[in-house]
Amino acid sequence: MPPANPPKVGLLVTCLVDLFRPSVGFAAVTLLERAGCRVTVPSQSCCGQPAWNNGDRTTAEALARTMIQAFEGCDYVVAPSGSCSGMLRKHYPELFRDDPAWAARAAALAGRTWELTRFLTDIMGMDTAIPGFAGTVTYHDSCSGLREMGVKEQPRRLLASLPGVDLTEMQGADVCCGFGGTFCVKYPDISTHMVTEKVEAIVATGADTLLAGDLGCLMNMAGRLSRLGHDIDVRHVAEVLAGDPETAPIGRAEG
Known about the structure:
Elements lengths: L7 E4 L3 H6 L1 H13 L3 E3 L8 H5 L3 H15 L4 E4 L2 H14 L4 H12 L1 E3 H8 L11 E6 L2 H5 L5 H8 L4 E3 L15 H4 L1 H18 L3 E4 L2 H13 L5 E4 H5 L14
Parallel strand pairs: 1-2, 1-3, 3-4, 5-6, 5-7, 7-8
Helix pairs in contact: 4-6, 5-6, 7-9, 11-12
């Protein structure tokens, strides 16, 4: 039963979802509405994480102010990404630590910010996903989702509620895939070695589909799987939890 006073949830779409995989955003809306939320999508920008990670504090602050203002009217801010939600929750307060007025606003936003699957399970009490997808899957824990946002069992609990989904864990599910935002650009050889090891672990599970909660990681692993000739589908976990079997896997042509 939906709550009597449904919370107003601002969806942080993320740049990669907006530009490369809008179906993840639509799946997030479906899941949030299923959990009883009123979903809004404020006009928003990049969260500023690439600038922050590369030491461009001026740009990061400007983008963060835009985001803080955009989401101040929401009860919660939810993102289908541990990386972007981690930027708001963990790094915005640090970004404005020397600016008392903005520090208070950043801290308030941080306290309302959640990664999608953790919000659904831990805040909204959702324990069943939407049937529609079937197959053997394996799950990659993204670094930010796991270490900054505390996401581990939540997506697995929701996947376990789907009768047609069989989860097979890979060895080193919590090991970085080598994407790391601009890390893969700065250190391509190291990144390629890391993602190749990750691909070996994925293939060893025998799973038909690879899932994760961060699109950057998924695009990185999908690219390496394809280049090495492995026929394994790659999807964002939100798409599977929302019962979407129709959208083409990441890295493959639609239709």
